[in-house]
Amino acid sequence: MRVDIFIQTTFKGNFAKGDGAYGILLQIMQGGVPKTKEHYAGWSGTTCQRLNVRAAADALNYMTAPCDVILHTGSCYVKSVAESGETRGKHQDIWMAFFAARNRMESVTIQQESSHEYSAYLKNQLAKKEYTTICDK
User: Fold this and answer.
1) Which pTM value belongs to this model?
2) Tell me: the pLDDT tens digits for 118-136?
3) CB neighbour class for 6 (10 Å; exposed up to 12, middle 13-18, buried from 19)
4) Which DSSP category does 103 fall into?
5) I need a labelling partner for 15 at 20 to 30 A (CA). Which of 34, 46, 54, 84 fits?
């Protein structure tokens, strides 16, 4: 089975700290018809990179059975570290969760895209701010 995971993030702040949110949409095709599930979360006191890593790790952790995953993200950082495995000591706790979830899957391919087929939809949903915001440590 193949699952496409689409991630969209928003972030306001500076390089060191800010507020952001992400939307995750998981899609499978059943009989030629897309079936989707969505999740949204907000974070305060975080960084843009940490937000993107958290979104990718959370997305993979929603998977309940091994499958082939295509993860669509706008983050070149997530793609680079996911493929190289070299975290350089940053966001170790979240990367460990990401790699553990990735190892449970049959395969995970990261596609770094500035926009994808659900970008506008997820941006619209995020603009509604109907999610819980958590303070990052």
Assistant:
1) 0.94
2) 999 999 999 999 999 999 8
3) buried
4) H
5) 84
